[in-house]
Amino acid sequence: MDWARDLKDWPNSHLSRRIDCARHRWHVQETGQGPTLLLLHGAGASTHTWRAVLPILAEHHHVVALDLPGQGFSQSGARNRLSLRGMTEDIATLCDQAGWHPTAIIGHSAGACLALTLCRILTTPRQTPPAVIGLNAALGHFEGVAGWLFPLLAKVMALNPLTALAFSAGPDPLRRAERLLKGTGSTLDPEGLQLYARLISDRRHVDGTLQMMANWDIDPLLRDLPRIDARCLLLAASGDRAVPPDVSERAALRLPQATLRCVEGLGHLMHEEAPDRITGHILDWLAEVADKEGGTVEPG
User: Fold this and answer.
1) How far apart are the C-alpha atoms of 254 and 245, rounded to whole Å?
2) Strands 16-21 and 24-31, bridge-based pairing
3) pLDDT-based confidence at 299, cuts 50/70/90?
4) What's the topology of domain 3-144+218-292?
5) CA dihedral of residues 22, 28, 32, 38 (deg, nearest 10)
6) What are the b/e assignments for 277-295, b being 16+ CB within 10 Å?
7) Relative to the CA of 163, which of 47, 102, 249, 290 has its CA 20 to 30 Å away?
8) Could you report the per-residue pLDDT of 201-238, keeping only the tens digit for each?
């Protein structure tokens, strides 16, 4: 997408800026004052996914949302960095350059995997780990034949530069977006559908998403879950068709300081369907953490 032209009517574009760091040109939205919350979207999304959540959180916090390299309006300068480890290290470098010290990291779907990995990188002997909030966290593998077929297809497609063009150039992007979102179990308003239609019509965004999928290796993170000492909240939507609630249930059993809360009646994009409800869960939990840690996080 063209930065100057397409960003004009993008959600919260008045908060947007560019940062060159770690071989990427990042699109960042930043607002608010107080403890810092870092928002990380999932594969194939962008800062738009936080369009209603971000202003609510910013009433009591300093909030930073970014597009992952190669997705949304962030430009990737190194395709070999579009992996779980590579992107996490580059986000940590970005945080250091920008002077951000997140008190909590909020990640949706694959963004929750980035959040858990990042919290370990940002932890120092003098600093407790940032809290992590995972929304429908993708902390598991596809089951059955999809477990080997989907990653293989992603790798094959990412190796062919024409694949992204084929995905982005199809007719009627709005209808294609409707089909994709139907598989998430979420029902979005017309604005939400239109935003995803714009994303899947952008060749560079599709290519960045495919590269991320092709390089995705979650096994090291899954092995390390019992050694992640950060306070974690996992919100799992009962109607999620992309990442079923039992994925979060199993992960919560392995994380030493995890709290699991089930959210009824919503799907994979629950924070877009019901932003007030989801931010209520987030702010209540952050207030609980603040009480336990002597005011580390201000209550919302």
Assistant:
1) 15
2) antiparallel
3) very low
4) Rossmann fold (3.40.50)
5) -60
6) ebbebbbebbeebbeeeee
7) 47
8) 998 998 899 889 888 899 999 999 999 999 999 999 99
